[in-house]
Design goal:
The radius of gyration is 19 Å and the shape is globular. The longest helix is centred in the middle third of the chain and has 16 residues, at 167-182. The chain is of the alpha+beta class. The chain folds into two domains: 8-191, 2-Layer Sandwich (Endonuclease, Chain A); 216-348, Endonuclease Chain A (Endonuclease, Chain A, 2-Layer Sandwich). The protein has helices at residues 20-30, 48-59, 79-85, 145-151, 167-182, 216-221, 240-251, 269-277, 317-321, 333-348, and strands at residues 8-12, 37-42, 63-69, 95-98, 103-104, 110-111, 119-122, 128-132, 159-164, 199-201, 204-209, 228-234, 255-261, 282-285, 296-302, 305-311, 325-330. Helix 1 runs parallel beside helix 2.
Length: 350
């Protein structure tokens, strides 16, 4: 892979101004003039001020598509924004909620695929497509603190958005966002769709999940073993498939470190015990204010080569097999260095 154009990297966290990533999105909405375009796909969307910013852009002549999960884990979390964007003065055909029927499991339970991507595309002031871990899931004023207690304060917790500016990546990501907005979403369309083709440009690949092929991150990590160093920051880590990928790296001789979210719901004690039994250093990133560690990235080093993997995907059974997810794999020195510096901040957080 060769070097591509510089990307924009924005982190959020307890050490940074609150609302930094939602304010970034607000600034980008305001910068798009009449005739421009905005295309979003996100899981949680509770920020009514951002919804109103989108409506103002729509009314000044910006063409907008916004697609959100119709039935997130906290079922009514998106209701206020859905009412705004789907209402009489809303985005019209540009707004859509997506809900895919559950898939039967061997235990007899239905496992429901979810639209878990975080993708924000803007045509101006120059074309850019942001991917990462951030949902605009906070609100101000906050009228539902119970929801924040459940999903965490994403406006102050650890998150990231990476803005790709290479034209071929931007075009591909915009096309994907528009496909998500207009496609029929059945179980089979999760695996067979033109809007889910891998994007490759310079030093970066962008993968859309799920696919019939094995998970893109698992396939990539399957190349590594002895002589490699791998650091995993995981907001969610549970399920046999995901744990097997990590313990398999250890068996092959990779030097591993895992930083995980503090809550047992997202990273159960059983997972921690499994990793410990495999000899994998594991630490939970805690915060005095219970702010979430919502990162999902991997740092890989072998010989003189370095890679960073990031996106919306979680290390969970649902994310691994069924969810709409985005992950990027890059050899960009700029991206690797930025995430490596963020690792140090997570590592030092007490």
């Amino acid at each position: 892979m060769t070097t591509t154009t510089s990307d924009e990297i924005f982190f959020g966290g307890p050490d940074l101004p609150p609302g930094r990533l939602r304010d970034l999105l607000a600034e980008r909405i305001a910068a798009v003039p009449a005739g421009g375009t905005i295309d979003w796909v996100t899981y949680y969307f509770r920020d009514r001020r951002l919804a109103e910013e989108l409506l103002r852009a729509h009314h000044r002549g910006v063409k907008i598509t916004v697609t959100v999960e119709g039935h997130p884990r906290t079922p009514d979390a998106n209701d206020e924004v859905v009412a705004i964007l789907a209402g009489p003065e809303g985005l019209g055909e540009g707004f859509r909620t997506v809900s895919v029927a559950g898939v039967p499991t061997p235990s007899g339970k239905l496992l429901k695929p979810r639209l878990h991507e975080k993708l924000y595309c803007f045509s101006h002031p120059r074309p850019v497509a942001f991917v990462g871990s951030f949902n605009p899931s906070g609100d101000d004023p906050e009228v539902r603190p119970d929801i924040i207690d459940e999903i965490g304060d994403q406006d102050r917790g650890h998150n990231v958005l990476v803005g790709f500016s290479d034209p071929s990546l931007v075009v591909g990501l915009v096309n994907h966002a528009r496909w998500v907005n207009r496609a029929r979403h059945g179980v089979l369309s999760l695996f067979f769709a033109s809007g889910r083709q891998t994007l490759r440009c310079g030093d970066t690949e962008v993968h859309f999940l799920p696919r019939l092929r094995p998970h893109a991150v698992a396939r990539f990590l399957g190349r590594f073993g002895e002589g490699s160093r791998i650091r995993i920051a995981a907001s969610h880590l549970r399920g046999r498939s995901a744990v097997n990928v990590i313990t398999g790296l250890a068996r092959r001789g990779a030097v591993l470190e895992v930083l995980a979210e503090s809550t047992l719901r997202r990273v159960p004690a059983e997972v921690e015990a499994n990793l410990a039994s495999a000899g994998i250093p594991f630490r939970r990133v805690s915060d005095p204010g219970d702010l979430p560690m919502h990162h999902k990235f991997v740092l890989v080093e072998q010989d003189s080569q370095r890679w960073v993997v990031f996106g919306s995907y979680n290390w969970t059974t649902r994310s691994y097999w069924l969810n709409h997810e985005i992950c990027a794999i890059s050899t960009s020195q700029q991206l690797f260095d930025a995430f490596a510096e963020r690792w140090k901040i997570l590592e030092n957080q007490k």
